[in-house]
Every structure is written in C-alpha cells, then in structure tokens.
Amino acid sequence: MALAHETPEYNPSNAQLTIPEVKVGSGMVYNAKLKFDGVDNFKLLSFENTSPNIPPAGKAADVEQWLMKGIYKNWACEATKHAGRAPSPHGENRICSNPLLSASDSGTFPMGAASVKELYSGDTISGYAVGVKIIAGEGKDTWYWYERLGSSVEGDGIADKACEGCHSHAADDGKGRDRTFTRVK
Ligand code: HEC
Questions:
Q1: Confidence band (pLDDT; 50, 70, 90) for 50?
Q2: Nearest C-alpha to atom 22 of ligand 1 is from which residue?
C-alpha cells in the first residue's frame, strides 16, 4: 500500500531533518523541518498545519496548484488507466485514493479522505476529477467536487450538481460507499 511520505528523512548535505507527520498535543503537524545546529540540538525551521495529502477544497486555482505538485501519485493508485466503468461519464481514467480513504473499511469516510482521478485522452492526461470529504458524517454537503477537462471546469463546489446526482448512487450496486465508487487499497 502506498502511504505517502511516511518516513522521516535526514539530508546530511544541508543538515535538515524532515518529519512528514508528527503528533503535537491532540493535533498533527506536517512536513516539520528541523536543522541540526552542529552541537547536540535540532532547531525547528518550519511546519504545516494541514496534511499535504488532503487536497485544498474550495477554490479551483488552489486545487490545480495542488494537483501540479503530483503528491497524489504517491497514494494508492490503480496500476493502469482503464475505460470508464458504468455509469461513469469519465472516459479513460486512473483513480488514486489518499491514505485516509484507502484505509477506511466501513461507514462513511473520515474527514480529509480524498480521491483523484486522472482523465486521459489517448496517453495524455487531459484533466482531473477530485473528491474531498470535508465534514464527517452522511450527506451531500460532506463532499467537495472538482473536475477540469481540457480548459473546461466541469464541477467546482460542495455537493456540486454535476457530480452529486450520480455519485450519490455509488452504493447502489453494493460495491461503492459514501459517494465513492472506487477505493484503491
Ligand atoms: C453519471 C455518473 C457520474 C457523474 C455525473 C460523475 N461521476 Fe465521478 N465517477 C462515476 C463512476 C461510475 C466512477 C468510478 C469508476 C470510473 O470512473 O471508471 C467515478 C469516479 C470518480 C472519482 C474517483 C472516486 C470514485 O468515486 O470512484 C472521482 C474523484 C470523481 N468520479 C469525481 C467526479 C466529479 C468531480 C464529477 C462532477 C464534475 C463527477 N465525478 C461526475 C460516475 C459519475
């Protein structure tokens, strides 16, 4: 299973230690960077409050910027692209599940669970579809959707009508769950 960025890494060339995820009190911080000060101490340089594995839900430009970093490629991803599975309108695609979505076995997905779908035209990625669980629990308002095909934005919003109507039926065939058809483990 591809859990992204799990192992702390020390880079001797700049004396920097990067800790991908660390518990602080009851919360977590991400990408904590520390520098060895040459004596017997590490100095904290920077950290982030939100996991890089959770796409920024809410603004198309932010989602695009995040997609271009390619972080999702370290998630659990289908090995190859495939034709859309009925009733998918997505055409040829490849789906990746983030660690939170991938690890969830039952019930609704936890907050922060997310999927990225690469949309293909031939062998070229021509767009992306993204789903992010933004609040725990049931209901259409718990998912943010984003899709761009070429230069055309097909969906961008919480409970987006272009996506919700169909994804709300993901559980109908007994395979999908909580508006998600495919979970990659
Ligand atoms: C008519 C039905 C339908 C519509 C409309 C639809 N999807 Fe999907 N979607 C699917 C199906 C079926 C899959 C799973 C398999 C596939 O695509 O091959 C899927 C997969 C996905 C996935 C991967 C996670 C999963 O649920 O499997 C994402 C992310 C996604 N769609 C986003 C969107 C977005 C964003 C929109 C709106 C712009 C949208 N979809 C509209 C049917 C739909």
A1: confident
A2: 117
